[in-house]
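[User]
If only I could read backbone structure tokens as easily as an amino acid sequence. I have put the entry right below:
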Amino acid sequence: TPGTWVAGTGASAGTLTLGAGLTGTSYDGSANVTTTVSSSPVLTTARNISGVAFDGSANISVDVSSSWTPALKFGGASAGMTYSTQTGTYVKVGTLIVVTLDIVLTAKGSSVGAATITGLPFTVAQSAGVVTAFYSNITGASGFAFVHRADASGTSIVLAIQDADAAPTQMSDTHFANNSRFVLSCAYHTT
């Protein structure tokens, strides 16, 4: 509850009456007044800060971290594909997203075509590069650089390789075995 101020005249500057939750004495202009807040004030209507509701009653963290499930696809499908590991984590700070993933196949299945990893937790605002931290049992990658990317307006990673003297080539089912593993990370902005 707010306090009130009644203006005075002459030597008397007025009277301050303190509101609810405040203790102290009335102020008549002749001395300083000391007040103590007996409880923390809160906002009547909570406000969002980076998507987190804040009403002033407690500290908040605008960093959000959670998990997501990456899915390897060949030609947009994953018929018969199985994993021993299929994990992803992310941290979101404002519009910046940092994702990591670890997939280990136990069967690559029967789908064929271009290789992608789907299921990014937020839509990509601008295309971003993807870093390969570790891989094993990937066929035909020796001597090539991994040049994976997350394209704008999407939620997937395009898996690609590049020879030093050639354009990037999108990876496909032929690069994978029943025990292939990829550990990747990417930082991108969302909309």
